[in-house]
Every structure is written in C-alpha cells, then in structure tokens.
Fold:
Amino acid sequence: MSHQSELIATDITAYLAEHERKDLLRFLTCGSVDDGKSTLIGRLLHDSKMIYEDTLASLEADSTTQGSAGDQVDLALLMDGLKAEREQGITIDVAYRYFSTARRKFIIADTPGHEQYTRNMVTGASTCQLAIILVDARHGVLPQTKRHSFIASLLGIRNVVVAVNKMDLVDWSADRFEQIYAEYRDFSKTLDLVDPYFLPMSALLGDNVVDRSDNLPWFDGPALMEHLETVDVEAGIDLENFRMPVQLVVRPNLDFRGYAGTISSGVIRPGDEVISLPSGVGSTIERIVTYDGDLDIAGPGRAVTLTLADEIDISRGDLLIRKGGRPMRSHDIEAMIVWMSETGMEPGRQYLLQSPNGLSNVEVSGIGHRIDINTLERETASSLALNDIAQCSITSDRELLFDPYNENQHTGSFVLVDRLTNATVAAGMIRGSASTWDRAPEQTLMRQISGISPKERSVRFGQQPCTVLLTGLTAAGKSTLATALERELFDRGKVSIRLDGENVRMGISRDLGFSAQERSENLRRVSEVARLANGQGILAIAALVAPNAEVRRRAKDLLGDDRFVEIFVDTPIEVCRQRDPEGLYDAADRGEIPMFPGVSATYERPVDADLRLDTSVQSVEECIDAILNVLGHRGFLRG
Structure:
C-alpha cells in the first residue's frame, strides 16, 4: 500500500509525479531464529498505517488460531505466508513487501533465521542497500547473528542497523543494551560496515519502531522509521567508470539497432565515446532511448537502449564501457563464494558460471581458505558443505570481464550452476584475478645458478643482503626515509637498490591500478625484483603502502624470513593529511579516489614489525639511525 496522500483524490497525476521522484531503499531483516524479524516488519507496516483494513481483519482472525502473541494481533503472520511457516512459527523463504512514506519508497525482504536457510538469506540480501540485524536482548549475539552480519558485509551491504529487540523482556535495561553494543562492536571490527546504528526496541509492543519509546528515556536516537527515511545509502556509488552489460540487441526494423541493458555504474551522454568488450572496437553514443523518450544523460540503475554512430558487432553478454578505465580480464579469478547446495563442492568439479558477461564453463581449481563464521578466522578446507563461505580459485574456459566486487557489485558477481541439474549451487563475489603469488612457473624453465658464491659477494660488499620494506599510509614519510637510507648506505660504501612505490608504478607496474588485488600484484613484483637483487648480494629498500597484512606476509615468505626487515612508518593520519601536497586524502574523502587506504579502504597495521617509526616526532636522522641499528643487529651490515 502506498503512502496516504490527499493528492490521490484531488490530483492523481501530481501524486504519481511526487511518488516517482522519491528514491527507493531496499533493505532486509536478518538475524537468528525468533529474534522477531517478521514481527518487526509487521509492526513497521501496522504503525505506519500501511496495512489494508481487510488484511488487518484477516490477521486478527488468524492470530486467534495460529498466532503466538497472546491476546495481541500476531503481526508476524503478515510476512509468514507459507503454511509451514505459520505452523512452525518460523520464516522459511524470503518474503517481500513494498510500501512508501512521504520521504521514501521501500522494498523489504524478510529473510529466514535458521542456518538451514542461510542460502535464502543470501538471495534476499543480494539486491539490498541496508540490513537490519535483529538481536534478542535476552540472548545477545548468536552464531547466526554473526553469520548474517558477515554475509551482509560480504555482499557489500555497508549500512547496518543493529536492532536490539525484546527490550521489554529485560526490563528496558540500558546496561543490557550496552553489553550487546560492546559485544557486537568487538565482533564487527573486521567487517566492512559503515558505523552501525544501534537501536533498542520492542517490535511486539512497537517501541522505537515508528515512534520513539517512552520506556527508553536513556536512548535519544531516532526511531527505526526515521532512520530508514534519512539514512544515506547513495554514498560511494561509482559515477565515473561506465559499465553496461548488453542484455539484448534490439532490432525492430531495418532503420534501428540498439543495445539494451541496465547501467551498472558511471554516467553516459550522447556523444560520449564507448568501447565494446571483449572486441575492443569503439564508437560514439548517438541516442539514449527509453520507453518515455530519449535521455540527455543516464546513470546507475537505469534501464536504457543505446544506439551507436557506427555499425559494430556487439552481442548479448558484451560489455560497453567508456574510453579509459577498463575492467579486469582473466581466465583465472579469486572469489568469495557462499555454497548453497546440499551436495558438497570439491575442487576439480566443473560448473556453469553465469554473470553479466554471459555463461562460461568453469572449474573450481582450489579452496584458498574457509571462514569460521564464529571467529572470522581462516581455516584450511578440502571441500565445502551447505552454507560454507570460502575463498576459491576458479578457472574459466573463456576470458571473463569483471571488476572486483567491492568496486562494482554488478560486474563483480556471479552464480555457479550445476551442469546436470541446472540448480544454482553457489553465489560468488569476485575479488580479482587469481593470485600470481601461487602460480607455478612453466615446467620447462630452470633457475640459473650464479658462478659467484654468496660468501664472495659478502666479502666484496661488506654486507649480507636483505630487503627493507617501509610500509605505512600515504605521506607517512616512507619515500623520504628510503632516500635517506639509500644515501647513508652509499656513503658507507654499501650497495643497495631503492624500489620506490611511485617509480615502480611508472615502470614495471604501470599496467596496475589500486584495487586490493592490484596492490597485491604490485608488491609481488617488487618482491621478485628485491629477491633478484638479494641474490646478487645487494640490499633492497622498498617504500610501499602495502596495506594488506596477508600480502606482506607473502612477501616475507617469498624473500625469506632471514632476509626480510619490516619497518612500520606509523605516522598519525592527521599528520599525513597535513603533508599531502597533492590533496589525495581530500579527494578520497569526496569519493573521487576509491579504495584509498586509511579513508575508503583499510590499512592493516603491522603487529610484529621489526621497527616502528613515527616521523611526526622523530627526525629523519633519528629514524635512519634506528634502521641502521636494526640492520646491524641482524648482521646485515659490517663495518
């Protein structure tokens, strides 16, 4: 039922125009069994007067025979429509409801709480922008609460409401609310969530659902409805990199050829140059055609038909992009998958991969790690069972076009389909091209051994080779220290090579961007160069942001623990911002630079670095002395 407005009776055209201008928020309710998800939605619709009178009368009648709310109307029955759901008092399948208020339109997905139906929750969450995670105030954070929170984060739902429900059953206790707040905060620190909104409430009684509660005087935040009407879920939408998978070639007559699809990201205008992938052939947008007429501009989420100035070969499954900013291409990808089949998955089996790029034959070539949903720790696995979440390597028979899921949820997602039953067995989120860290060289290649022994080089240079990695935020002082260290070693008669991050980006890594996967590949290349230098007896100095702890560990493994020195340049981000002459931090704050460590991406601080430096309080000379002291103590320098 739509928002009640006097315009419906007086000016239906004006009402429809007003309704069309409202933005749409898709959200879901999730959490553990009996946390009150269906009741919350029923209460939300009831107190907003969004239930027809005949529907309400039917609920009142059903509540006497199938309800579980005592003498009150069991509003959960509004969402639990299946017979089995009403008999058991649980949600089994995803139920959707549409409603609107004066400010916004909403689509609600009520998802199951049982672990058995986690796959249904994944389905419901796949198109949502916000998640309401319910927590029973009596029980606190349960394993299924963690599972759903992790899946919400995994699917790119960064806006979360943690609704602590059934506060009436704990006497509206502020202390109990604070305990759950702290428990969830500790758990969610490693999840990619915007600052979660914590809300005490009672869905059964309606406290803090639509109106603020008099029973919770210690809580001064807005009620759930007010938060849903005002929360900003549009931040972070990519308006720069145009992507439109072609879903249909429209050819109604000899005079019209158009390419229909939904724009995944970016904006497009007539006259813009576009490229069709995988062919790489370019043309110019002539018209943006819709049912309501041509548009001057179109953006994300808009279904359009594009006509081009040139007759070029474009088929369903091709990808239209704007010139520049190309997506990634690879036969081998790494992805996080949620296994949704009761039949287990073992590496080596073949499946069909369905994505906006079309249908491909693929093989799950390996399982990197499985996530322990209770601790969020990684564990080894040789197979996957129903509801398991794991990072896997997938090999395709044809080249895939994609963006990492955290950059573009549409072009970075896929499903795996069983080739025999045609059943969907997994949902996947692409992280990037399969890691080259583990890729074995061609078997025909053999490593060549130098005729000069390491001992001879050590005697000649007066040093033992190692690699010094200076890691830290942008503008922390890494390059300054690397340059000063190189100078000091040279003045001492030592032989070194400096691998500065910007110099590397202009040379061996000029084909890489700044996604997590590409940053990983950049460090791998630098590490390989450093290993070659170390093999020649040369000290290597690398100055890189290197934000991921696991990737730094891989670099350490590649170079050898006995030849690796990690220096953490731990300069406060406030100081880094002040030093930033190019305004990178400000640009990242405005959303112009995605995946910027410290702002729009995480920088994982080293916990066991060989040395920690703070250039905001330590001079360059003091820092270099400290580094030289570490190198001397480890036996890399003599004399």
Observations:
- Residues 454-633 form a domain with the Rossmann fold fold (CATH 3.40.50.300).
